[in-house]
# Entry
Amino acid sequence: ELETRLDISSRDEVGSLAESINDLAAHLQRYRDSQQEFFANISHELRTPITYLEGYAKVLKNRLYETDEERDQYLGIIEQESLRLQRLVNDLFELAKMEEGRFELNPDLLEFEEIVEQAVHKMEWRAKQKGLELKLDCHGPLPRLRGDGLRMEQIVINLLDNAISYTEEGSIIVTVDTRESRLLFAVEDTGVGIPENELSLIFERFYRVEKSRSRKFGGTGLGLSIVKKLVELQGGEIYVISTPGTGSRFEVTFPFPSPVEETGGTPR
Ligand code: ADP
# Structure
């Protein structure tokens, strides 16, 4: 709680200054609360895999298993939790860099369709494993896009990865098109969907609709907040439309570069 609320009720400049200071104080308080919550979340998220690692390492060390299969199962959990920890630390670093503005993009002129094609190709085996159809619907040729190729790929892979994780049967349709003179990239699935009142929350750090489901798929709850930041840092926007039990559609749009940029002139 901040105790520095100024109690000045005059209607002149001093009064309005006091009001601004109070607004600022309230803003700082909210910021402090959200930072505190963030750190509480981080420690919880880090502690969970560490607890598993410690527990199963002990079980193995003291040979508290009966069969080789049982032992292999525990080793599998240790491997899985180590990977989760690795992902978590990577994601946290990325987010921290983005938030502090220490994040470097290497902009280039990109053939976005190619990036999507390659990403779809990379994710095909995962879709196949789950018996899902993964289809690419590309309405090219499109103008080139200005952005960081690796980061664009990260955006695409992340959305595909989620679509596959949260879909049990049916298909995932990826579209690349133009819409209102912007590039449109969409990933539509026939998965579990997201309740309407949670749609805006899923882009927040650590937010998950269903914690256990996300955990099962190795999710950190940071993927979409990173995607959103990467999209916005490159001038884009991201939306989601979803119906629980029917599926979700994530849409990303980017502006095309102006003709000056396209011909290699000085960027803004
Ligand atoms: P996670 O690592 O948990 O997948 P994300 O930040 O990528 O974290 O996503 C946040 C939450 O949004 C997920 O836990 C899940 O509940 C929900 N979500 C994301 N993508 C989808 C999707 N395609 N279908 C249904 N729910 C989704």
About this structure: Residues 162-163, 166, 189, 191-194, 202, 207-210, 214, 219-225, 248 surround adenosine-5'-diphosphate (CB under 6 Å). The mean pLDDT is 91. The CA atoms of residues 17 and 59 lie 63 Å apart. Helices lie at 13-61, 68-99, 112-129, 149-165, 211-216, 223-233, 259-262.
